[in-house]
């Protein structure tokens, strides 16, 4: 125990005197998570919080135009703009503004669109009435030469997902208007047939019998934790920063080998495992402190920059176990790199580049789900992805310890395997 | 009792074309001050590494105070030996006191007794005023002296030194050599390597000259000089046995 504590104390003193190492471990990650959260705030908000201006030209002035304007406005994602400088917007102006990149989208509702929908509904109702032996016929327009369509103009730079979301929303509005009008016509026809029933007592026809409701599947109290820039970037880049501990550890080990202090430690009676254990515990502790420092920045620092506050789930013990396990794996990786490589240059270059690659494929930069399938399969082998997966289970899905056990088992097993390889390499070297 | 017995020691490092040791044998009694001498590449550092258990011998036999250097006796041998490596095996970012306290803790010493011991040696080696200075900022001589202290904190019966006076000034060398004489007078054994043959001649009771991984000759400096009438000193004896060809 004395050897273990002495080693922790020694590592603490060495770290305190290594200003560059301290900056790498603590200051750089703070800058990194702040910059990444700020930069990625906009892309994360694309479909969640950002309100887009949408140019609307209503040449119809009927129910369809009103439904579309109201529907877009009520969705909370769009500012409907239908006039410029007190003048109603024209289709040509709207196209021009989108083409110039001033706006992302314009919608033009053609003249007579509502009339066309009403006529179509009447035609359906007449057909039904005829089959039921009813005489009353609703007016139907003569068939138009060309079918009418709501025209959409997108900024050429608009993302595919954005375009598809808008198209889906508009398609919903169109279907809704057409359904409403059809039901209205049916109701009208039924009233004509049963003229004794007062119109105000006639039951309304309701089409939507079953709706959708989003509920939290997490076991905890917290609901509606949305993956935003802070929820993704703060834990993700904290894990990345924790793995960067490979650089000070590998540097420290190679220096010990080069300056002979490793030889001295090995010449002293007692198990070298105590010394290695002290080193491991110290750096795991540094990783955990680093992780919680970043989380504090997420909770208290991010809101000061106008970003959302980090939510840490309901099971804080699970969060600690995850941070500790990531720390063990990161430290073991540092010990392995420090053992295998002979010069600081080799170790530092390999360590830094390998962590960047592991983080890129492990979903730190962008979520794993948006990557190609093959990359996803490889990415799931990255310890950084196991760590991030466990953190997401706790922070976003309100998971408890049992949810994260598979990831924790993977992280700790990986750490133990790396320590085993390091011990084998060291043993071979002395032979 | 012999301090060290080395019998027919062989060692070839992985990937090396030439063996480092080719049947090296020598022995010396407890309480002696012995110099292990040889040109560059003769096998001195390999011999010391095998004696301390840092490197495994290819074949042969090593005994330290009658204990075979094997896995079963390694810990006991480590307790009996103090090693001063050629490198300054200290943490340059830590002060002398912090370094010595750490290595003392690794030996199992702690608290006031350890601090008293450290301060005693710092005073003995003229480093008491530099106790709180980082070792990386020490002069070459100060580093060498601190390096020796770290090896004797556990009062070993056998002190093994690999070129302990390389690159130090006259004052530091004098202090180190005086310490070695005193340490030896207390009944402890000392094995040291050096290229400074004049120093070895003054200091050692016995010298072992090795070359190309084999022992060439062993004896007291005076006896060896006497055996070779044309030799004025140990350097002449050394050149007689190892030749004048430059070694790399």
Write the layout of secondary structure elements.
The complex is a heterodimer of chains A (about 425) and B (about 250).
Chain A: H1 2-16, H2 19-39, H3 41-45, E1 52-58, H4 63-75, E2 78-81, E3 83-84, E4 87-88, H5 91-99, E5 105-109, H6 113-131, E6 151-154, H7 160-193, H8 229-243, H9 246-258, H10 261-267, H11 272-304, H12 316-340, H13 344-361, H14 373-379, H15 383-395, H16 401-430
Parallel strand pairs in A: 1-2, 1-5
Antiparallel strand pairs in A: 3-4, 5-6
Chain B: E1 2-11, E2 21-29, E3 33-37, H1 44-52, E4 59-64, E5 67-68, H2 74-80, E6 81-84, H3 96-106, H4 111-124, H5 140-152, E7 158-162, H6 170-185, E8 189-193, H7 197-203, E9 206-211, E10 214-219, H8 221-227, H9 234-242
Parallel strand pairs in B: 3-8, 3-9, 6-7, 7-8
Antiparallel strand pairs in B: 1-2, 1-4, 4-5, 9-10
Describe the protein.
The complex is a heterodimer of chains A (431) and B (248). Chain A is mostly helical and 431 residues long. Chain A is 64% helix and 6% strand. Chain A has 16 helices and 6 strands. A 4-stranded mixed β-sheet of chain A has the order 2-1-5-6, sandwiched between helices. In chain A, strand 1, helix 4 and strand 2 (78-81) form a beta-alpha-beta unit. The longest helix of chain A has 34 residues, at 160-193. Chain A is elongated, with a radius of gyration of 32 Å. Mean pLDDT of chain A is 83; it is low at 220-224. Chain B is α/β, with parallel strands linked by helices and 248 residues long. Chain B is built from 9 helices and 10 strands. Chain B has helices spanning 44-52, 74-80, 96-106, 111-124, 140-152, 170-185, 197-203, 221-227, 234-242, and strands at 2-11, 21-29, 33-37, 59-64, 67-68, 81-84, 158-162, 189-193, 206-211, 214-219. In chain B, helix 3 (96-106) packs across helix 4 (111-124) and helix 5 (140-152) runs parallel beside helix 6. The N and C termini of chain B lie far apart (37 Å). The mean pLDDT of chain B is 88. The interface between A and B is medium-sized, with 26 and 33 residues.
